Amino acid sequence: GNDSTLTLVMLPRLDKATRSGAWFAALEANGMSIQIDTIERGMLPQWIAQRLAAQGQRVVAGEEGQRTLQFFADRVEGNLLAAHQEISKLALLHPAGELSQAQVEAAVLNVARYDVFKLSESVLSGQTARVQRMLDGLQAEGEAEVLVHWALAEDIRALKRVKDAMNAGRPLPMALRENRVWGAKERLYERILPKVSDAALARLLQSAHTVDGIVKGLKVPDWPQNGWQALQRLGFQMCRLTQQAAR
Fold first, then answer.
1. Taking the complete model, does pTM exceed 0.70, yes or no?
2. 67 and 186 in a common domain
3. pLDDT on residue 2
4. Cα–Cα distance, 222 to 229 (Å, whole number)
5. Quick one: which of 116, 59, 101, 108 has its CA closest to 84?
6. How far, in Å, CA of 151 to CA of 133, rounded?
């Protein structure tokens, strides 16, 4: 072979069974694998604090410091390269030691990048404010309305399929596996489905059908004509459902 040619294979997170497969073993035998886990939104403030500490800086202790880290996380969400750059910038602007909220706010740009597939996790968690922020960000970044709708509608359809399977006597873990619901979403579904009603899911499915028409140019009475506004309404409906189920 040509030793000057380097092949880089990038994969999503693999489960244990996949990593034990023959094809993955062959890849590892002829190269090396490096696992880089995603930093979830909830862990981002802690990650930022650790990076600041590595360069001798820290936020104010207590509630003010936590607000500062949350502000920072909101501004760089989904864009770790930009987060690293903003942290490095703080080292250039300020000496080692304590950083005030005002110093961080003045230095950190809004460089968040939002992932349409992360939107559904926020919706399923009932995080209304974050859903609003992500929808605004996706719109500003020029994301296609139909793709955002697909992501939301796919979760609604999956919730309905799993609920139907439960009604047919399937244990929830089995129903989730059969519908290929894993990871973070699996935990969210486990929290929502035992308490959500069939009627509520049916209404949500009808709303998804309505918004499908709106993002494709149809006008529907009692619904916003603007696709993004309709997506926001659908997202908020999902948030309310998940919030009620979590009580």
1. no
2. no
3. 62
4. 12
5. 108
6. 16
